[in-house]
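Student: I would love a firmer grasp of how sequence relates to backbone shape in proteins. I am handing you a single protein, as its sequence and its fold in token form. I am told such tokens are a discrete way to write the fold. I hope you can help me see how the letters and the tokens relate. Take your time, and here it is.
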Amino acid sequence: MLSLFSKGLVRGRVASNTTGVNIGGRPTTSIIRSYATTTSEQKQQQQVVGQSLRGKERLKTNLKVGDKLHGFSVVNVQDVPERQFNTFRLKHDVTGADYLHIDCEDKNNVFAVTFKTTPFDSTGVAHILEHTTLCGSKKYPMRDPFFNMLKRSLNTYMNAWTAPDHTSYPFGTQHEKDYYNLLSVYLDATFFPLLTESDFRQEGHRLEFEQLDNPESKLKFKGIVFNEMKGALSDPSGYFSEIAQQSLYPGTTYAHNSGGDPKDIPALSYQQLKDFHATYYHPSNAFFFTYGDLPVEQHLRYIEENALQHFKSPKQVDSKVNHVQRWDKPRRITVTCPPSAMDVNPERKHKLSISILHKDNTDIFEGLSMNVLSNLLIRGSNTPMYQALLESGLALDYTPNTGFDDNLHESSFGVGGTGIRKEDLEKVEQTIISTMEKASRDGFDSNVIESILHQYEFGQKDVSASLGLKLVGGLQSNWIHGGNPINRLFLNENIARLRKEIAAGPFFQNKLRQLLDNPHRLTITMSPDDTQQAREAAEEENVLLGIKSSLDSKQVETIVEQAKDLQQRQSQQQDVSSLPKLSISEIEKKQQKTPFIDEKIGSTDLRLFDFPTNGITYFRSMIDISTLPEDLKMYVPLFCSLFESMGAAELDHKQLDTEINLYTGRMNVSPMISTSPFNLDLVAERIYIKSAAINRNIEKMFSLLKKMMLENRWNNPDLLKNLLGQMQSSMIEGITSSGLSYARTYSSSQFSRAGQLSEKWHGLTHVKFTNDIIAKNDLNDIIAKLIAINKFILDRSLMRCSITTEKDTTELAKQQLSMFLQQFNENHTSMVNNEFQKSDNTGSSLPHYFAIPATVNYISKSYQGVNYSHEDSARLEVLSKVLSEYLHKEIREKGGAYGGGVSYASGSIGFYSYRDPNLAKTINAFNESIEWSQDKITLENVENAQLSIFADFDAPESPSNKGVAEWMRGITDEMKQQRRDRLLSINKNQLEEVSAKYLNPQKTSYTTVLGKPDTEIKGLSNKEWEYKELN
């Protein structure tokens, strides 16, 4: 649970990922001493950057209110003892730019600049501008400085996102000089972008003939954002959330899709894009955020000299978000949406939610109170709304807008259900209201209240490796609307105030009464329309036909020439010499070691980690299930998902839910597959248990685990049926948004036991299996299998454990673990290796195409690699990054897909693209990249890939996670040092050799696509494609 009170960082047009992939969480321990090249700009940066003391040894910022430095004035100084933060708010003297700095010992330094952007249409202008600013700037006039910096930096995070009312540009790094490299690029991109028309057409939208130079071919809309939003709005959950927001906030910027609606995006002109930047991207409308152990004085100087000094006066920017004109009575709307990927419950297709507009989000205590109330009402099985709506069977799951949301200027509260029968819609609406009415009279159990407050306490103590990045999103929504962002950091005093309010009277009851008496209430009913996507595609086709018929010869010529020009620009070799770059020679050569102690508790292996965990103990256990009968292994994901949900011992499922929240911060059970670092055919098959507790609750944590393992209340058919329905609904609803994950899992399942098992446990095979057993409805058989799995894992000889805690708590934790383990028998069961039955195919098999209700494609093509310790493994990892650099240009820039590249993990080489309007063109690009890699790789390609890999390889970890992944996979510090050495010594010849060796046409590969229904491909089924409808 976020201690910033909100249930998420940004909602709506969330984190528009300009990189096409999630780039978060990538710090490194490298020491950067100089630049690879030195321009006059870089010399200036070298003068700014000194040898700053770091971490606890840093020179703490010593500023007071009224101090002036580098064009800024200090307006507020506050310490936050509970976070060990020193905070400083400043104002830029000339422009009025707002600045917040958090001084702390965290070496993962963060920068963000945020602009309040309030579009009043759904053309996606803010989103397209976010993309286009990163395509070249005054100081860095190459085509793509942002993506190039990903390969020239050891960043922990680089991204940008468009929210409904602001656009943010954050980055993170542990390295001082790297920080100013990135800062230079980010400042120039946001304040001085080139915003060329070619980049607008590439990133936003354009008209192009299907055959570029053939005006007789079909006219098409193209553009990266255009395709991204087609994919985003194909997801029923995302579509529902967007409609809910727009309908609750009429007359405001929130009534429009800031990401862009594909129907409206083509209406945006290039001039409107430039005007939007000129209006909103001014320092007077900017919010600067810095965090970490680097001195703020350096930041201020650099920002002033490289950006703000060029603005000679303030600017009145009309970015205010008006209040919604409040309704005098509730309203309702009925809408349709694209269908889910599977129609397994044809009678339960409907969604209904009630949303209530609340108050300004600047009242921090109100936000905390409402978030707690939301959790009391809807979170977990021991809450009234869960019992009335889900456990009753009226709905299968909550709608995505359920809960309290204070990410917009005015907050809202919503409750809704999915998987509703048409005849139950009215009853669901009545149930939501009556449940809130009852809670407003009866209040909530004090134990449940304490369990929610305990989660806030745990979240505050739990040390994160990316706290600064979380704060970027968590503080913005309040700050940009005039709130004091520092107030959100004082959780303890707000919790103390809340406790007093609860003790004084019917606090939450009164809050509920306010919601119920609020006439600004919206009821949304949504039903799937199987023809909606086809109808919208036909409408788009008609629009294009109309445009084409109206074109004169000069306009036709312009479209052809612009397409050729863009293609030529995309194919040109970029001169990136002006961009700062870190040298490979500056990467740390020595692998940092993770200290641990291996010992035994009786006969059970235990690994102990002693780290500063801020008063929390983390427990993990791996239970080997290699000898579990194969017919039971298909049920392992269900077992893990249901493990905490059935009740245990004297606790029914509702009481157990409360106890878990009251005494632990984390409890999770999941299937786990890991391959041997020495042999891909050796596969560990396990159930993985992890939990954590504040040190005062260690005994209670192990007590709860013991009850769940020894006395789980599996024999409850009614509850089981209900939970299975919820799982199925959630799984099917998420297929479209998880299309790439399913495609990758299916492709890689053909090579190894690990891949095969991953498909059975996490892929489309698992979805089908779940649907089949639910349709069969033999609950007693399912219960018998779950009990059999539970009985099997009660064997101490199958268990390996780890504990992460502080030295003073180690003995207590070991003592409690010893008592816990004594409850289990020792059957001396040995691990076995289950062999994979390999295919007899000698060439590529037919590609598989799974039709889903989407307007774009998710494509994966996999080849077999090698084990972790093999000398070619490091080379294949570098090759995957080199190939990704090539494919970025072909798939994203030229092809218009949201993202694409190559990954290398678990011995599988995986080509991929997602939210991709193309199919054959992308698969051809995969093949062309292989040909290119066998004789055209450059030294620069290799170095770019190495930097990108070490940004991941040396990623910072929270104390709770240090050493855990290596423990699970059997990787030692010595093995990591060997891999580091190999990664640093790779050359282009080695990459060309492994490309020819592992990616040649004679090697077996498997292609999987999840994409829009395609009659042409369907007609080729069993000839060129294996075409399947998921239903």
